[in-house]
Design brief:
Radius of gyration: 15 Å
Number of strands: 0
Strand content: under 5%
Helix content: 40-55%
Shape: extended
Number of helices: 3
Structural class: mainly alpha
Distance between the termini: 47 Å
Length: 65
């Protein structure tokens, strides 16, 4: 596993607009997840990926009123 600094550097290489101070506020686990997301966006459209089990594919909400 990369260090937090290493993760931030890799993220910044792909997304140079990401503020380093802002990225430093996140945990290494969150940074690794974001880096994986960024790396996936570099793949050609239509390439396969695996959804993490912590979110559903579709989310809907009912209005309060």
């Amino acid at each position: 596993m990369l260090t937090k600094t290493g993760l931030i550097e890799l993220i910044h290489e792909i997304n140079p607009t990401a503020d380093l101070g802002w990225l430093d506020e996140f945990s290494p686990q969150d940074l690794e997840r974001y880096l994986n997301h960024l790396q996936q966006t570099l793949e050609p459209r239509g390439s396969s990926w695996t959804r993490l089990g912590d979110t559903t594919a579709v989310v809907c909400r009912k209005p309060a009123a």
